[in-house]
Amino acid sequence: MPRHRFTLAALATLAVPGLDVAVTRTFTGGGDGQHDAALLTDAAGDHLVVRAPVDEQAGARLTAEIAVLAALTPGVRARLPFAVPSTVGVLPAPQAVVSTYLPGVRLQPASVGAGSALAGSIGRAIAAIHELPTAVVADAGLPVATAAECVKGVEELIARADATGDVPLELIHRWTAAAADPTLWRFRPCVVHGGLAAESLLVTQKEDLDGRVTGVLGWAGLQVGDPARDVAWVLGLPAAGAAGSVLDTYTATRGRGSDAAIARRALLYAELEIARWLLHGADRGDAVVADDAVQMLEALLASVLEGTGGTLVGERLPTLTVTEVERMLDARRQRAAGASRAPLAAHASRSSSAE
User: What is the CATH number of domain 5-101?
Assistant: First the structure.
């Protein structure tokens, strides 16, 4: 049962001695299903957010985020064109964290249009994270991965997904070939957010024609790794041309720091997110989640078999440009709009693939 906002306010006063809470409100924007949260207003009129994890896994992520936010010093934050929360107080048990409140609204993917100011702001925001000095992460004792280790992580994920028996062999072969393609992995690891998604971004109100990113949340996964992980979610923006606008701005902002294969790797990571969803369902014994992932894999397989899924390996497609990614995504959207979610008659399972 969710904790009442008054209970959360009481925890906040324990975490921040001397805190005088004048108003407390339930805060759905800070929970994401992992926390109970409340928005507090103190006697001075300043706003704070208190979060209490709902389980051990959420608690571990919250602890990791506290360490990351401590590593983002004022000097580091000055390099970013958006705000980052700061930790105000921590209560060890029962666990609760009080942080600064960031103004803005959660990004709605449909609000990002091709060539829009918001698309450009998203591209610059991601690039700014990737341009941070890697020492920020290394000096804080956070994960630092080489390109080879990133490939190994992908291979291990594919192997785990394959072991479920629920991923069509055509997709396993597709992903394995991509992992083995040396042209895909010639990149320089950089600072990555590690969990970037639409819900991580706070933006100006939709009425603001000069839309921009005002804040970024969810920093628990900060590390040095593959920048394509942070742009994979962009490929899912529904408006035609929106993903291209974000990636074009990102590439132009990074300049020499960008790499030619980032769009192909982002496509691979986006597909592997379905495998992660499948594993999440399997690990938790949640048949609803697992079945949903299987249906998404079937839809992905259909797009690949129809030739609208894009090609990952460099031998067959030397360079997958942003325009080509956009064209592929448009084809997927058109197919999804007219297709049902019923299982495919063919190529829907490993057994059918083996026959």
Answer: 3.30.200.20
